[in-house]
Write a structure and sequence with these properties.
single chain; about 180 residues; alpha/beta; eight-stranded mixed beta sheet; two-stranded antiparallel sheet
Length: about 180
């Protein structure tokens, strides 16, 4: 089985687990995320607008004391860019149905909340398959230190995420069950 086939199989299982966990609610996940982000006040934070059954970081983003950006897909094979967001700002539909600010400054984040489909105990994430976050984290890490924070339901943990040379490891995973840091 190729890495791509293994990722597709893992993605299917993780989507099912996420859907079930979403139906039960996210518990204290957003509060734990806000606590983790508190020491990073003043730093540029990138969050995301939750879609479908993703765990929702909006409360933690709104509580952040500093600039907050939301990812904008620029095109296939490209890194994400981040447009400034604030609670109540005008939003519009972006690529793949993701909500993005209608206008605002472009920001370069130092802390990135990363959505995911699945993750493992090593800190690797399984995304949707477009490679957007892996390209983005690689680009940002080549320029400056970046804290990559996976945000998920505990049920999304997989025994092992299949990886290749392009996959970027997360620094931290936050779930309703707690915070896990990877060295």
């Amino acid at each position: 089985m190729s890495v791509e086939e293994a990722k597709a199989a893992a993605r299917k299982a993780a989507f099912a687990a996420r859907k079930e966990a979403f139906a039960r609610g996210q518990g204290q996940a957003a509060e734990l995320l806000a606590d983790l982000l508190a020491p990073h006040r003043g730093r540029v934070l990138a969050g995301y607008m939750a879609m479908r059954t993703e765990v929702d970081p909006l409360a933690a983003m709104a509580a952040h004391q500093g600039p907050v950006g939301v990812p904008v897909i620029m095109g296939a094979g490209q890194a994400l860019r981040f447009r400034e967001w604030s609670p109540g700002c005008a939003m519009m539909d972006g690529a793949f149905g993701a909500r993005i600010p209608a206008e605002g400054a472009w920001l370069e984040p130092e802390v990135v909340i990363v959505p995911l489909v699945g993750f493992d105990a090593r800190g690797y994430r399984l995304g949707y398959g477009g490679g957007f976050y892996d390209r983005t984290l690689a680009r940002l890490r080549a320029r400056h230190a970046v804290l990559a924070v996976g945000f998920a339901f505990a049920a999304q943990e997989l025994p092992e995420v299949p990886i290749d040379e392009y996959d970027q490891r997360l620094d931290v995973i936050v779930t309703e069950a707690g915070i896990r840091t990877f060295s």
